[in-house]
Amino acid sequence: MLDCLEHTPGTPATTSVIWMHGLGASGSDFVPLLPLLGLPTTRFVFPQAPDRRVTINGGYEMPAWYDILTMERGPGRESEADIHEAAELVTQLIAREGERGVPPERIVLAGFSQGAAMALHVGLRHPQRLAGIMSLSGYLLLEEELADELHEANADTPMFFGHGRGDDVVPHAMGRHAHDVLAGSRAIEWHDYPMGHELCHDEVRDLRAWLHALLG
């Protein structure tokens, strides 16, 4: 089981948000946002990614959901074995929430950057319906396998995409592409903002509205 920071409400949690951080970051990164989101009966779970060597960063060891092997975009850019390993760890967290009284249909899977890519990867393939998937400055992993692996349980799960128009780490076009691949009959929202690889006040405001509409 991954190490996690948790914010648990004073009353029994009725909903949960599992929120994954970006490359080289920490599970504590988004804790300061909680007072702004205003969800008093929601448990927030912030898992810490395993430390692993990241090829594009000179093999330096850091918190990472998966190794990135090359700066070139396309198949083979990320370690497929790492992605599958991390996906299993995230799936364990979803199962644990069920054991603690919050079923999958009341869980939002969320993330930023690498964490957003993992939220999309796991959420779209999960065999039980989730409440929603939140991708902040994210992109698709193993897209060539998605058509075969997309689970019908989450074929129309509500989704929130947020991205900076000036993002020079995960280009705006990658986030928009992920949205466009998945858009259709599902309740999917796209928001972009005049910012880089980060969050801004307007994005937090939109996240709050989306989460409140979804979780009540």
Structure description:
- The chain is an alpha/beta fold and 216 residues long.
- It has a single domain (4-215), classed as Rossmann fold.
- Helices cover 32% and strands 22% of the residues.
- It has a 7-stranded mixed β-sheet with strand order 1-3-2-6-7-8-9, with helices on both faces. Strands 4-5 form a two-stranded antiparallel ribbon.
- The longest helix has 20 residues, at 80-99.
- It is globular.
- The two termini are 29 Å apart.
- The average pLDDT is 95
Strand percent estimate: 15-25%
CATH topology group: Rossmann fold
Order of helices and strands: EEHEEEHEHEHEHEH
CATH superfamily: Alpha/Beta hydrolase fold, catalytic domain
How would you describe the shape? globular
The low-confidence parts are none
- The overall strand count is 9
The number of helical segments is 6
Helix content: 25-40%
Whole-number tally of structural domains = 1
The second-level CATH architecture is: 3-Layer(aba) Sandwich
Question: In which order are the strands of the major sheet placed?
Answer: 1-3-2-6-7-8-9
